[in-house]
Design goal:
The protein is of the alpha+beta class. Helices cover 32% and strands 27% of the residues. Strand 6 and strand 7 form a beta hairpin.
């Protein structure tokens, strides 16, 4: 990989694919389609639509549009896509926004990528009415949140995120983000 490629490395997070047998998009097909778009070295992780790739395009928002539009044309259903630079995703793990959270078997750590820049007067930490869901902060267009299953056996965390920030979001658990970062190779 050339230095230029490495500096233009991105991570695409696709929303709503391969969930409950709906909107099937095999990761091998995703890699093929990204190559057709001229992106280099696509690497997928898990079946939920996480792909690392290199591009000469410098604008993540332009890549959102290009990828989403192309995948909808090819697969016949909307594929909302949020793209971030690899460096910005790596900063998440470098800063570890969950370092002060005691993780138990009931604790779930989430990173939600916002598709649009949101201005909010929300005070952090923000808690759901039943205290089962907490938003720690919003950092660089990313909502950092914690779900405590011990507080509520029927969590409504994703619904709360959509209510607060709209549907132009996609969420990954912290373990997935760490695995993605393990696959990113920057100079």
């Amino acid at each position: 990989m050339s230095n230029t490629e490495a500096n233009n490395q991105f991570v695409a997070f696709l929303r709503g694919i391969n969930v409950g047998g709906h909107h099937k998009l095999p990761m091998a097909d995703l890699k093929t389609e990204l190559k057709k778009l001229g992106f280099d070295n696509p690497v997928t992780l898990l079946n939920s639509g996480n792909v690392i790739f290199s591009s000469n395009t410098k604008s993540a928002s332009e890549l959102d549009r290009i990828i989403s539009q192309h995948l909808e044309e090819v697969f016949g259903f909307p594929v909302p896509t949020i793209v971030r630079t690899a460096k910005s995703v790596l900063r998440l793990t470098d800063t570890n926004p969950f370092k002060d959270i005691e993780v138990t078997k009931d604790i779930r750590l989430y990173i939600t990528f916002l598709g649009t820049d949101i201005k909010t007067e929300m005070k952090f930490p923000w808690f759901s009415p039943d205290k089962s869901f907490k938003i720690i902060d919003i950092i660089e267009g990313v909502v950092v949140s914690v779900l405590d299953l011990a507080e509520s056996k029927s969590p409504k965390a994703m619904a709360a995120l959509e209510e607060l920030f709209g549907k132009d979001v996609t969420t990954r658990n912290w373990n997935t983000i760490q695995r993605i970062c393990g696959k990113i190779s920057l100079p």
